[in-house]
Amino acid sequence: MRNSEVAISIKNLTKFYGKFKALDNVSFEVKRGDFFAFLGPNGAGKTTTINVITGLSNYQEGKVSLFGYDTKYDYIQSRRLVGLCAQEFNFDPFLTVRQLLVYQAGYFGILPDRANKRADELMERFQLIEKRNVKHRALSGGMKKRLLLCRALMHDPEILILDEPVAGCDLELKYLIWNYLKQLNSEGKTIFLTTHYMEEAEKLCKTIAIINQGSIVSIGNKKDVLRDKSLEAVFMELTGLE
Q1: Which residue, 98, 203, 84, is CA-closest to 148?
Q2: CA spacing 20 to 30 A to 123: which of 11, 67, 73, 141?
Q3: pLDDT tens by residue, 179-225
Q4: How many CB atoms lie under 10 A from the CB of residue 17?
Q5: What's this model's pTM, rounded to 2 decimal places?
Q6: Complete domains list, the chain, with CATH
Q7: DSSP assignment, residue 104?
């Protein structure tokens, strides 16, 4: 990798939807091995930033790179470095759990033997092995959430990006997912988490960036950011969403 210390680098990122400026000159870095919370109210620009990082959305100005690979020009290398766990259950309705995972591996050139082994490892880890031959429609909501995580990890990416992974989860599932994420981070995964749950950011993350109305309003060590009294208005809005 070109830069082994900076996992995600975003410089002067500006994104428009028509005349609406969704991201306004956003700049920040995520260090290798960090557990980074991207915190903000609904509509602040969190998902738009994720879409840009993962190549799902274009942008008008700025530069985005993953471990030194430009997401626009080095797209093959940069895509291999990131796994995305989105909010939606966007699974193929005709495939079983195992088939979904093996199919995902094919996008990254992983051959079937290795893909099946990796799928078994992840299904065991996320307590889905007994459902390996079941189609996703027969899974509970909690199992679908875990399947999203498995799919994102199939190619063993350096960076795991999660877009509000516990939204709509009950308490038991929420804490289960949090424990999985803590373990993955302890094993060296760089995790980029978007959330509007203050509790989630406090319990999981080392670094917090707060975005509001398309602009970064604070970034730094978790304790320092949460002590910043100038952010009370944003914190009150976030608390109201929980």
Answers
A1: 84
A2: 67
A3: 999 999 999 999 999 987 778 888 999 999 999 899 999 999 988 88
A4: 10
A5: 0.90
A6: 1-81+158-165+191-242 (3.40.50.300)
A7: H
